[in-house]
Write a structure and sequence with these properties.
Blueprint (H helix, E strand, L loop, with lengths): L1 H9 L3 E2 L2 H8 L9 E3 L5 E3 L11 E3 L19 E3 L19 E3 L22 E3 L17 H8 L5 E2 L2 E2 L5 H21 L26 H36 L10
Parallel strand pairs: 1-3, 2-4, 4-5, 5-6, 6-7, 7-8
Antiparallel strand pairs: 8-9
């Protein structure tokens, strides 16, 4: 039934054509396109997208795409954004062996079985199934502890839904989460038993004010010497101006050689 609904929905909307790809990318040859941004174009059919054999970065978010068949030919693809579409079948992506980052938040993925086709993608490190900021998700995200199950299914992942699950920083991230949970449980247990105390500043009010400037004997001597040097410079400048003026007057009083007649 879902496949029939997807076929009916794909009947309308925009289809990707060579003209659309060339106008968007500025490339004359489809094989030369490396990056495509087709966000929010009302696209429902991927058409000739499979001809972009060199494509590495593709944004198809905020469209009406249900069928991903043409993506199977994009073996060079490394980043794919399919957020906010109608995707329920990821099997064509199993051929995208270089895929590293995949965003499918806001689609129709209902179970972990629909993610098993990604287990052969050894370079896949980032997967997003849910985006709380954009209020996007998938039905399978309602399952308790679904991230742990996804991490077990796809062990190469380092981040799920923007949260580190392995690699550098994952231990600190988990520690912060555990600490937040402990503080939350402690606050809940103490609720109603003791009135919260008013927060007090850690330091005195004048702690952050800069100290008044202090001038020692060394600094005073430096100021004095600088003032003397500045006065000497002014005197030298006046002397130079007088000398130049005298020279100009002396040169102006000499007769013009061109005035003599031979």
């Amino acid at each position: 039934e879902e496949e029939e609904e997807e076929e009916e929905e794909a009947g309308g909307g925009v289809q990707i054509t060579p003209q659309l790809l060339k106008a968007t990318s500025g490339e004359f040859s489809l094989e030369s396109i490396l990056l495509l941004r087709l966000r929010g174009r009302g696209i429902s059919r991927l058409g000739c997208l499979s001809l972009c054999s060199s494509l590495e970065w593709l944004d198809l978010s905020r469209n009406a795409i249900a069928q991903l068949g043409p993506l199977a030919a994009l073996t060079a693809l490394t980043v794919l954004n399919l957020a906010q579409n109608r995707v329920a079948d990821l099997r064509p992506l199993a051929s995208c062996r270089n895929l590293q980052s995949l965003n499918v938040a806001g689609n129709r993925l209902r179970s972990l079985r629909q993610l098993r086709c990604l287990s052969g993608l050894r370079r896949l490190e980032t997967l997003r199934l849910r985006d709380p900021l954009a209020r996007l998700g998938n039905p399978l995200c309602a399952r308790p502890a679904y991230r742990g199950a996804v991490a077990t299914l796809l062990p190469t992942l380092r981040a799920i839904d923007g949260e580190r699950v392995s690699g550098r920083g994952s231990e600190l991230f988990q520690l912060c989460r555990d600490l937040d949970s402990s503080l939350g449980r402690g606050a809940a247990a103490a609720a109603g038993t003791e009135a919260p105390r008013v927060a007090q500043p850690w330091v005195e009010a004048a702690f952050w004010q800069p100290p008044p400037p202090r001038r020692g004997s060394v600094l005073d001597e430096a100021y004095r010497q600088f003032g003397e040097a500045l006065r000497e410079c002014h005197q030298l400048s006046r002397r130079a101006d007088d000398t130049i003026a005298q020279a100009e007057r002396a040169l102006g009083s000499r007769p013009d050689p061109g005035s003599f007649v031979f």
